Prior knowledge:
Helices cover 35% and strands 17% of the residues.
Amino acid sequence: MSIAFQNYYTPPSPDNWTGRVDGSDRDHLRWHQVVECIHLDEAEDLSDRFVLLGYACDEGVQRNLGRVGAAKAPTTLRKSLSNLPFLPGQQKGMVDVGDIHCQDKNLEASQEALGEAVANIRKKGGFPIVLGGGHEVTFGHYLGLRKANDQKIGIINFDAHFDIREPQNNGASSGTGFYQIAQREKSFHYLPIGIQQISNTQALFNTAQTYGVNWIEAQGFDVSNQETIQTQITSFINQIDQLYVTVDMDVFAAPYAPGVSAPAYNGIMPNAFFMSTFKHIISSPKFVSIDFAELNPDYDIDNRTAKLVADLVFKVVKKL
Length: 320
């Protein structure tokens, strides 16, 4: 790994994994009892492992004039994950490889470091689950997938926003990731789900159309449209080689996800229809990585947002 990576990387700490102990046999185990903490440089083989990697950065949110605090998400999420029950039949092990931090407001360097980490995990056979921070995580995550191989990448983004804004004078932000990716890909495969008309300018809708993006709006994300939505998702996945899923927690209605950088009072609900759609997506054999963005613990109420992330991570682990 490069010297630059080492400057932005913090190894994992077992102190982040504590919780109740009900017993030591497999039926009583919780995640804090089974997650291994391994320095990423020392991980020789991550095959058949879920690899938890934190991205402690919200510089992109600050540049985007959002509520900062998402840099604290990795630590908070480890606490929420610690007491989840370990599934005796689970096929993959779980590893924590630590965090990528943003130093001296150098967002671009932290994204490069994240890309190195994700590429390292993928090349060693691991399944990356990136925790936090702002949605600038997307570009760094993408860089890692692209470094790992040259297959056709498709991205499904659960989000109220397109995040396809062209970078301005202050550089990249949490709202520019997909524009940056579009500039690098000959064939741009992007499906945003949960888009809000109230949260995007007409220019952003126009940009999405320019790049051939089809989207699913929050107001149409409903069980009454289940067949059409599943057909659209299946068609999208059929066009790609590997699927990367990113979940911006502001896609959800504020009562369910109050702890975000930009809350959406009328976002989608994490109900049975959402969960069935999510399971449909993560059931694809092309599904190779996921991240959870924009959790802001400073504004969370009763850890609702963190618990929702933990539930979605649990579903990924349970499904694969």
